[in-house]
Amino acid sequence: MMTSEYLPFDPNVAPKNRLPAGTVDCHFHVFEDPAVYPYTENRSYTPTLAPWAAFQKMNDTIGADRAVLVHPSVYGHDHRTLYDTLHAHPDRLRAVGVLSMDTTEAEIEKLHNAGTRGTRVNILFAGGSQLADAETLAKRIQPFGWHIQFLVDVAAQPDIPSWAAKLGVPVVFDHFGHPSVPDVNNPGFKNMCALIKEGGAWAKLSGAYRVVDPADKWGAIAPFVEALLNTRTDRLVWGTDWPHPNIPAPMPNDGDIADAVFKWLPDADLRQKILVKNPEILYDFPTFIHK
Contact at 8 Å (CB) between 170 and 201? Predict the structure, then answer.
């Protein structure tokens, strides 16, 4: 079984630019002591330790004041890490869980009260929900105002966006749609962009190294960024994807990941929209007040 490796954040290698106050890192995971929070047996990788303290140090250094914890596939439907992390940092965090078909309305309400605002459907890695569950899950989460977040390769499944448009809840695509074909003209990516333009979906500017070779500092991701910016900028959010699970080392420094934002979003007003305002809407954060 593959073990995830990543280049630990070095606080001495800070980014050249500081993210705007109120920035929300919309995609991160924590992997705590497995003796306390065991992994599901049905998983495709075993992560290295990546505790909250390490994430907080990284986020503080790059200037992200808030964040969204995405429940990883290695925990299956066991939300103990999610609950404990949210309860320890209620003002700073929101979360995306992973509901099972057996999840009760009472449990969804409990997750909502803790700060969860969506459920993830993972059809890339073992341990996640399956696509066939999404229609039923959509009906269950609709009263809570949640969204469904898809971890899916839109290039391999180009019909997913049009299918997702019929779910009746907002949908969010991880990592630029995670296309396995690094070409903005692939039908799946174009279909995703069309759905975003219609207002039925959001996309995360995250995990660029999952789409293109990180050796060139993600220069090849520029056409994807441009294509998404040409859809609707009020339907885009950003995240570090820390600690970059299921990606072999070495990884770029997290400071470089933060600095890439300033290349992708050179305009200050655009950064304010995508990094601060859009996440407040999608994840139900209060308006940030700079202290």
Answer: yes
Q: Which domains does the chain have, with CATH numbers?
A: 23-283 (3.20.20.140)
Q: What is the pTM of this model?
A: 0.94
CB 84 within 8 A of CB 111: no
Q: What is the pLDDT of residues 229-248, one digit of tens each?
A: 999 999 999 999 999 988 87
DSSP code per residue over 9-51? --TTS--SSPPPTT-EEEEE--B--TTTSPPPSS-SEEPPPB-
Say if CB 122 and CB 97 are below 8 A apart.
Answer: no
| 35-44: pLDDT as tens digits | 999 999 988 8
